[in-house]
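are you around this afternoon, could really use another pair of eyes. what follows is a protein written twice so to speak, once as letters and once as structure tokens for the fold. i want to understand how the tokens follow from the sequence so walk me through it. anything you notice is useful, everything is just below.
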Amino acid sequence: MSFKTGIIYLLISYSCLSPLYGIEADENQPVLYYADSQTYDRELGILILKGHVEFTHQGSILEADYVTYNEAADIVTASGNVRLRQPDGEINFADYLELTGDMKKGIVLQLRTLLEDDSKIAALEGRKFENRQELDQAVYTPCELCGDKLPTWQINARRAVKDDVNKDIIFTDAEFRFLDVPLLYFPYATQPLERRSGFLLPKPDYMTSFGGILQVPYYLALTEDIDATITPVFFTEQKPLLLGEYRQAFGSGIFNIDGSITNYKKDAKDKKEEKAAELARKAGNKVDFHLPKTRGHVFGNLEANLTDIWRLQLEGGYVSDKTYFRKYQFSGWQHENALTSKAVLEGFLNQRDYAALKTYHFQGLRVAQDHQSRISAPLPIMEYSAYSATDPLGGRFKFDGNLLNLYRQKGINVQRGIGIVGWQRPWNTPIGQVFTLFASTRGDLYKVEHAHNLRRRENLRRRENQERIRMDQSIERDGGARFFPQTGLNWKWPFINSFCKQNVVLQPVGQLVAAPVQAIGVKGRKIPNEDSQDPEFNDANLFSPDRFPGYDRIDTGSRAVYGGEVLTTGTLLGDVELFLGQSYSLSNHQHNNIIPGLRRQASDYVGRFEANPVSWLSLNYRFRLDQKSLSTRVAEVGGSLGPAIAKLSGTYVFISRHAADTLMNRAALLDNRNINRDRRNISQANLTFSSQFTERWTLTATLTKNFQKRTRAERLQNINDHHGILSEGIGLMYKNDCFGLGMTVTRQFYKSADVRPATIAAVTLWLKNVGDYGFSFNPTQGLFGERKPSDKTP
């Protein structure tokens, strides 16, 4: 007979039965149960429940095939598919258990426990107390169990105690087994069941410049929302390095800060290069090479939501010298050209309005190129952007404002204010054409200080180079005001068709822009170019009203822009996109000579091609072709080929020696900026081959090569620092659900100051619930790449 009842006090068949589990004094804590059948022995006071039995009491749930309750002894016994679920999420499985009525104490045979973090414990016998369990012949593992297959690793102990108060598992007379082979013996060991202070897994590495390397991180769980990590790094051929990280989360944001410090020991090569640099400086040459005795860095980040509207972000730091990050292989920093510090207060005033106050500081990291006293610092930038609601004509107004104070210790200081008011109105025709009419007017106000210093430097460069650059003539860049109106019309007409399960969209596009050849007011050459120094003409900005990246230069003149686009998607050809376009100047085209690709009235051709026909093949190609010869000026190619078992991916960048042949770049050459100064083509490729040859094993190889040819002087001096192969690496990784092992060897060939060609070898071990590291492949930092922000458990 099957039935369900709520409270044990109400047994339908037996009127004299005492309350189950002996909780007579606590009528607010009833015991609920369910069973297919029940039997009650009045003389012995024993209740017998059979078939799908389920007891519920104070959040604990006991399930079994057969359960008895002895009223006099207040003992519950269960057998057959026994499962006890605790309020904290822990689940105990057993063949037989015997508990007190409140299910807090007792003995268990053939115990198997599933913990809240998905770890497992098994024991031949266990004794359960209110706040702990004592287990005999225990086995612990966080690995997934599948049939009779052994876990990858486990801890076997003669005795284990699970402490529910301190959240620990304490092992006595234990051994660490890998694939059931004993590797390590521990007379005493603990495994925390929560975030806890302690040592993380050590990480060994090797570099030819440092010798053997060992990182020994120690994790500090300060509070529930604050932690820190202190990592001493030991080298066999260099003095130790100390790393530190502090993290805090609070209700409205996060705060992180990390740093490092070392007492650097200069080797013979360092001393030799410093001595040569000192002699060069005494001879009057500018040499940028200095290695401080104490090297290190600090960098912090604060993000806070002040209100529902306003958000604050503070980020910044300092590094002791330009090559420190590259020398010590700091992931995320070693390829940066500057350490950027910033403070940003931004407000999302509503769905259409935005305001921000920003300030920046840049610490240059390029050897022989960055002079800190001449690097500008925006102190501050104020931005405001607002959209109006739709007006009666169906259009919208937009306002953009920008205020800037640019400061340098040496050189030009600039203050500027910019306001742009624009309007646009889209509409569709009955035959499917899409038009967008736009118009804008812009007003600028500039104030320039210390322009006389720049004028003296420009006159000196001009005499040295015997070249007259029109846009950089000897002028007084004292600023002024200017006004610039612009209007235009965008047009596109999509045609849609389908065939053989393939959808095709053919779309011609066009644009007409009307604007004066130059801004009204102060001439552009009297305004220093701070934020528009690297203009690029490509498919992404072909139809932009202003193709300059900043505000200091204006894209003046009238023009017509035209192009075509083909998009297709389906099962026959996959996803394919092709675009080709060109700009034609309707004004005197000489005004735009500062933008590469716009030297002639008809611009270079720009386009892109993207294809993903099948899951194992992808290709993207962006290009700029010379308008007359159709020779390649700029090309970027990327893609991947092959399935996971053998996949080749890479990128290739080509910049012709003619690509930047403009007045702006010739002026930049005089200003010692990083351009194609030696008139050689620039080309570089990055290749990665990966093979997941089994479900668990992955092989990866990387190669970076610069195809730029050496000059005659470089060949005579045997200089090959930035030519040919720059780096190459190979790595092998095994990873399953609870164990990971990665091994990498990388060779880097480039040289910069004290960063010399080196071989880097790394071995990284990952054990679930013992120490977590990211698993993305980075040959410089090991198979596991950058460490991801996550809870660390020693």
